[in-house]
Design goal:
- The structure is a homodimer.
- Chain A is α/β, with parallel strands linked by helices.
- Chain A has 2 domains: 142 residues, Rossmann fold (3-Layer(aba) Sandwich); 142 residues, Dihydrodipicolinate Reductase, domain 2 (2-Layer Sandwich).
- In chain A, the strands form 3 sheets. The first copy, chain A, has a 6-stranded parallel beta sheet, with helices on both faces. In chain A, strands 10-9-11-14-13-12 form a 6-stranded mixed beta sheet.
- In chain A, helix 1 crosses helix 10.
- The longest helix of chain A has 15 residues.
- The two termini of chain A are 14 Å apart.
- The relative contact order of chain A is 0.16.
- The interface between A and B is large, with 52 and 52 residues.
Amino acid sequence: MGDFLGKMGMKSKPVIAIAGATGVVGNEMLAVLEQLNIPCSELRLLASKDSVGELYKFHSDEIRVEQLDGAAFEGADVALFATSNDLAREFVPLAVEAGAVVIDNSSAFRLQPEIPLVVPEVNFEAIKSSDRIIANPNCSTIQLVPVLQAIHQAAGLRRVVVTTFQSVSGAGKAALDELWDQTLAIFNQREIKIEAFPHQIAFNCIPQIDVLMDDGYTREEFKIIQESRKILGLANLKITATAVRVPVFHGHAGSVNVETEKPLSPKEVSEILSKRSELAVFSEAADYPMQLSVAGTDAIQVGRIRRDDSAPNALNLWIVADNIRKGAALNAVQILQRLLPQH
Amino acid sequence: MGDFLGKMGMKSKPVIAIAGATGVVGNEMLAVLEQLNIPCSELRLLASKDSVGELYKFHSDEIRVEQLDGAAFEGADVALFATSNDLAREFVPLAVEAGAVVIDNSSAFRLQPEIPLVVPEVNFEAIKSSDRIIANPNCSTIQLVPVLQAIHQAAGLRRVVVTTFQSVSGAGKAALDELWDQTLAIFNQREIKIEAFPHQIAFNCIPQIDVLMDDGYTREEFKIIQESRKILGLANLKITATAVRVPVFHGHAGSVNVETEKPLSPKEVSEILSKRSELAVFSEAADYPMQLSVAGTDAIQVGRIRRDDSAPNALNLWIVADNIRKGAALNAVQILQRLLPQH
């Protein structure tokens, strides 16, 4: 009897490569693969030359980082990409050519119409067996769409207004160091170095994430708007976003105002959201999620659900998740998990 | 020839008392009185017993802090209150009884229908000569209403959705110390003390400012909604708010979504707002105000003005101000300034 195959012909014990394994998201992918006990016959950790030779623990093994190059994907069944957009544009096609299914956390392919953009609990069915690349959405989008989908199915979305509070970890290791170093420099009255962000982030909020575009929106805001539409399959969803970087290490929060076609009480919203396994609902007003309390956790946490009397059928919500786990690494590995053959 | 009298019979060189002079806002009132060269024949600094005897510089004088008690207002023409609500409820009536005009920064009297709630550039005319108490609005409200008034006059407000990013200085000296101490404790791996806020504020955002009410809103959110309506004279203004404390020392920011009756382009909004002396407009997208850059400044700064396509005639804006200056002490002293006789 041969091997059972999963969706996209996935083997039960695939060869997995992580491209960008030494970054914040790549590292977390490694941790999540172990935590979710994803079976694999081999795990390859790929990174730039500087990191080659570094050793990482995976279960009882020690894995040596190899160089990310064209040859590195030979024989790989799955490639999890946690690289920059530029490296993804260069190496994702090579991984596909080598026969791997790619799950890519960069934004390089997300809005290409033929590439599925997936939060597994929301639109896993968007993946066709013939697909070779699956895009992992933007961190702020991932934590938003399960909530929006549940509300849409219950009452029809009319309009969404989002303001985000995004931690520095979304910008990588150098950004984590920068918040830490700037904060220390302030205490020690030393000069502040600004490299990872356009301005000082220590004790400051920056209303710019990613580059500014011609219409005055940032690319991050554009991603939240366009990726939400694509994942939800609502091409004309009325949604606007303001994305703000805050001096917090881990976790993204969003203040979300939703208008619906039909009325929904806060209690009904709590009940609807509570039915979804990926969400944790705080239905008591005095109890609410915060970035500090979601760091390292898997669920998207929703609180401060309350009626907004400024429009018919309007609600305010506060949505928080670990942007590196559910917002990136966990979501990518969950996609892989559902591609594996079910025994 | 006698003394010219200003509005409410204000003398040209009044006796001024500051109640709560040693707190963050009271201290800033002292600084602003000096910076704006407000004439006075005497300045009294009043505080609780613990601070009695402390010396503060005012122009070339040194002023000794006296005890805040019923007798302290005798002969005072103006009393600037920067105390807690409880102390305001106790001592404002005594100051009025002693003959002083009170400008009160607490929230104790703000929503009483007969008490004017004033941002001088917006509704100075709300003050009648017979008034004895003028309420100074909530810091988040002060920076919002001039922008809303300008947009309303130009195009009619239909709905406003506000999410705030509020610094710790709004919660007083102990709160400033708490952000500082918690941050240091994290660096030194010491235990964190939580007293001024309901949760750790260092490297965290707390979606609760002031107490939670039965409808799920916080009192801060209630203040933003109700005070905006009262100041703008729009009792039925459709407005909702989410107020969030961020780990920033000074300055409040707001992500503000506005829908209007008539269309307004971002360029038109910039032009309309630029005409108001209390506003500083950043019309280039790449240039935007931040909490770090407004600390110690007087203007309400507005940037990231952009069209929101999710609703007809909708706009997003980012509004930042120093919550202790324009959001509190400066606004109070500006009220006094306009009560003085003009020569």
